[in-house]
Amino acid sequence: MTHSTFLRLGCAQIVGHDDQMAMNPGPLPDVIPPGDLLRDTEVVTVSGIAGRYSLVLPQAWRVFYAFGGATLATAIRAAVAELARDDLQLISADATYCQAVPCGPLACAVEVLRSGRRGAQVQVRLWATDEPRSDPRADLLVTVVFGSRDAASPYHLVGAGFPSDVPGPEDCAVPARPDVETPFDNIPYHHQTEWRHGLGHAPWEPDVAGGNDPRTVTWFRFLQPPLLDDGSWCDAALAVPGDMLAPAIVEGVGRARGYFLVVTMQLSIQFFAPMRGTWLCQDTRALHVSGGFATGSVNLWSEDRTLVASATQTAMLTPIQPG
Fold this sequence. Notes:
Oligomer: single chain
Number of strands: 12
Strand content: 25-35%
Largest sheet: 12 strands, antiparallel
CATH topology: Porin
Shape: globular
């Protein structure tokens, strides 16, 4: 298959659109060690260049190219490292996906745009390279907002409701794989997470009729949780379950015309509260699909019904041609 065939397949989401500029991801290794997102997205400084970081993102986070949520998590961690302010928390991150990023050596060029008393903004350019001292590119361009939350503020509102129309994760089915070959087979990323659906179809099902409410509710967990010393998740890790638009699109438009790609153009995530526990609930809705583009949102809830984050996503839809 060509690069465009593998860009983004249902819930296994890949980003990028230019065959000529994309680095070839190469064949899958015979053995892929289990992933650990907290370890695998940790950046290290490049000596002698201010704001420059590098890492090697393992093949565990690969779909065909690197999973978009994993590269966003990497960029956020680079922003946190460069800002180096424990008094500020993540408020939001906005990502523009300009080019497919393969798993392997990556570099980040980070610039603190503003560091004020109660807020800061940081820009990250991430690109694939085995030479982290090379001139920066923006395969992925991310702006991260930090702030100091005022616990004494009188303003408080949670406008979303927990999806109580689905059972807990232990009572939801593990999605069955179809007997026929699909584009979702042999995806390393799927071996790093567990996913159960409470509402809607699994995105790899070949016979979804469409015409349904374009919404899915799923339970998600990392097989190796990205836990900090206090037992909460690393906030940047929420970018991974926040990259979750395709299943709701499939629910609404169906598979009558076969499989299609959902190529991320933009992904924004807002952080509300620390994530604690094992399972996270993804309440996903496709808001608009037309003209080859789709926009949707996902609310991320902990099992104790705390809204921990919310994401919005815009993507380009491209049919997968047989063969």
